[in-house]
Write a structure and sequence with these properties.
Blueprint (H helix, E strand, L loop, with lengths): L1 H12 L4 E7 L2 E6 H17 L7 E5 L4 H12 L3 E5 L5 H11 L3 E4 L2 H10 L6 E3 L24 E6 L9 E5 H19 L6 E5 L6 H11 L3 E6 L5 H8 L3 E4 L1 H18 L1 H18 L5 H13 L1 H9 L4 E4 L6 H10 L3 E5 L9 E2 L18 E4 L4 E5 L6 E2 L3 H7 L5 E9 L5 E6 L4 E2 L5 E2 L1 H11 L3 E7 L6 E7 L7 H12 L8 E6 L19 H7 L1 H13 L1
Parallel strand pairs: 1-10, 3-4, 3-5, 5-6, 9-10, 9-11, 11-12, 12-13, 23-24
Antiparallel strand pairs: 1-2, 7-8, 8-17, 13-14, 15-16, 16-18, 18-19, 20-21, 22-23
Helix pairs in contact: 1-2, 2-3, 6-7, 9-10, 10-11, 15-16
Length: 554
């Protein structure tokens, strides 16, 4: 486990310097390299004292924290297989994954959580609270010993989101992680350039997600100061405290930031609104090579009096925002670039150790997710599916040989995503095969591009989801973005605009407003925020039926 050795070396080198910290109530609580190593050693003694052996699985269920990271590293250093799980996931779903992974021990946040697990799974193995892992007073050794593990030894089992079925445990090996941490470190070197100061990183995405976890390991293996968010309702304030150079995002947050900035400016009216509106229009024409002298003047004015303030409000020291997990709207990426904050995209799945492609900070193409990482092969297979092979590909699903064989058939990992490649080697993700809507006319339609097109014209909508499998035309379910609700006329106007120029079978003919947002808690989003389309269709079957019955009777 080269990545683990590098982390311990880096922590020892920065023994008296802060390496990881939490923001709590606007204040910083930091751990130096030595303090963090001591926590890891305490956790190692806890696990070894309880007879856990290399190869045993240990579930880790808790919110992000310094101690979460220490427990994770300690488990791997002891040769245990870490099974991280999302603390906000429904208890019944967690218990299903726990039963599947058969852990020797479960680590969870508090007694109430432990009781809920025991209630649903009376035969559960021993459960310990995260705080109890860090009670040893042992003195840290200068160079903690590491297990001698083969590259193909499993270090973690991360459960996939399960958008259309039961979650599967993705096994990742030491070799997978060694390769990926090296790749992400090299790309961050390119972003940061020559610098003697530690990278400043802000982090709020749960460590139980593969991409978030890889960033954690990468940050700890290089000269970085990682600041953890401890309250998602205070991200804006915490960002100001952390003052990061970069941080990992999901599209949802960037969409909200963009919408908030635009709403604030447009609400001011007068000269500010005029500058912003004209500068934005001029920027778009400039990208198309159609800018006039007037466009250049408005852009120059905005760059002088408006865009610096926007940059400062988001993050004064930002060199870039990194975005992954789902497709980012082209217009949103251009908005941030326009105000002077590069948005770099990554693409990958848990099965690819989180990443397949990464934007080059010095040469990236908006709307695309960058080239394949050196050492990884990617190509388009049947049905425009992206298939991948390389040292980042997982060895298989935990206890699911048939699913593994299907996913890795022909020696390539079949991503289930559709995409294309441009002349410069940059990939674009166009849809997901399982999400294809097949009309009864036989037309196959990827819903994502159409959903994005309407959503960009309808900021009042929280979610816009197409339906229509085995129906005669497309329809949509729409949720409001706020308690103000939605105006049907605005929805129809956005749909009409999106329909313009589309072939008849891609046009959206009806919609229904759903008052309740699709969330993780109501089972309509996965743990990392993706739509559970089958669950949505099942819950709103009557409403969907009415959309088609209404058209028939009209």
């Amino acid at each position: 486990m080269k990545f683990l050795a590098r982390i311990f070396e880096q922590l020892a080198l920065r023994a008296d310097q802060p390496v990881i910290q939490e923001v709590r109530d606007g204040k910083i609580h930091a751990a130096s390299g030595n303090e963090f190593l001591r926590l890891i050693q305490q956790a190692r003694l806890f696990f070894s004292a309880r007879g856990l052996k290399p190869g045993d699985r240990c579930a880790l269920i808790a919110s992000n924290s310094i101690r979460w990271a220490a427990a994770d590293l300690a488990m791997m250093a002891e040769g245990l297989i870490v099974v991280p799980m999302y603390v906000r996931q429904a208890p019944a779903e967690l218990v299903m994954m726990l039963r599947d992974s058969t852990p020797a021990r479960i680590i969870c946040p508090d007694a109430g959580f432990a009781a809920e697990i025991k209630k649903l799974w009376p035969e559960a193995p021993k459960i310990s609270l995260l705080e109890s892992v860090f009670v040893s007073e042992a003195v840290i050794q200068p160079a903690p010993s590491l297990p001698v593990g083969a590259e193909d030894s499993t270090v973690t089992i991360i459960y996939t989101s399960g958008t259309s079925g039961e979650s599967k445990g993705v096994m990742l090996t030491a070799g997978n992680v060694d390769f990926m941490v090296g790749c992400t470190g090299a790309r961050l070197d390119r972003l940061m350039g020559a610098t003697v100061e530690p990278d400043k990183i802000f982090h709020y995405l749960p460590f139980c997600f593969a991409g978030s976890w890889i960033l954690l390991l990468t940050a700890l293996s290089r000269k970085s100061l990682l600041t953890l968010s401890m309250d998602l309702t205070k991200l804006s304030e915490e960002l100001k405290v952390a003052a990061p150079n970069y941080f990992l995002n999901v599209p949802t947050l960037l969409e909200r930031v963009r919408a908030k900035v635009q709403e604030t400016i447009l609400a001011r009216g007068g000269f500010a609104t005029r500058v912003f509106t004209n500068a934005r229009a001029g920027y778009m024409r400039k990208r198309e090579g159609k800018a006039s002298i007037g466009d250049s003047l408005w852009l120059a004015l905005a760059n002088q009096i408006m865009f610096p303030a926007i940059r400062t409000s988001i993050g004064a020291d930002l060199k870039a925002i990194i975005c992954g997990s789902a497709p980012l709207a082209y217009e949103t990426q251009l908005f941030f670039i326009m105000v002077g904050i590069p948005v770099l995209q990554v693409y990958g799945l848990t099965e690819t150790t989180a990443i397949c492609t990464m934007d080059d900070p010095k040469n990236y193409e908006p709307g695309r997710v960058g080239p394949a990482i050196p050492g990884i092969e990617m190509k388009v297979g049947e049905n425009e599916e992206i298939i991948v092979r390389g040292p980042n590909i997982f060895p298989g699903y935990w206890q699911k040989p048939a699913e593994t064989e299907k996913a890795l058939s022909g020696g390539w990992f079949h991503t289930g995503d559709q995409g294309d490649l441009d002349a410069n080697g940059n990939w674009r993700i166009t849809g997901r095969i399982k999400n294809l809507i097949i009309l009864n006319s036989g037309h196959n339609i990827a819903p994502e591009p159409l959903e994005d097109a309407v959503a960009q014209k309808l900021p009042e909508a929280g979610q816009f989801v197409l339906v229509g499998n085995q129906r005669g035309y497309l329809a949509a379910l729409v949720t409001p973005a706020s308690s103000n609700g939605l105006v049907s006329e605005k929805i129809q106007a956005a749909i009409d605009e999106a329909n313009g120029g589309l072939p008849h079978y891609k046009q959206i003919r009806a919609f229904h407003v759903v008052p309740e947002a699709f969330t993780i808690e109501n089972g309509l989003l996965t743990a990392n925020g993706k739509l559970k389309r089958d669950a949505i269709a099942a819950k709103y079957a009557a409403e969907i039926d009415s959309l088609y019955a209404a058209k028939k009777s009209a």
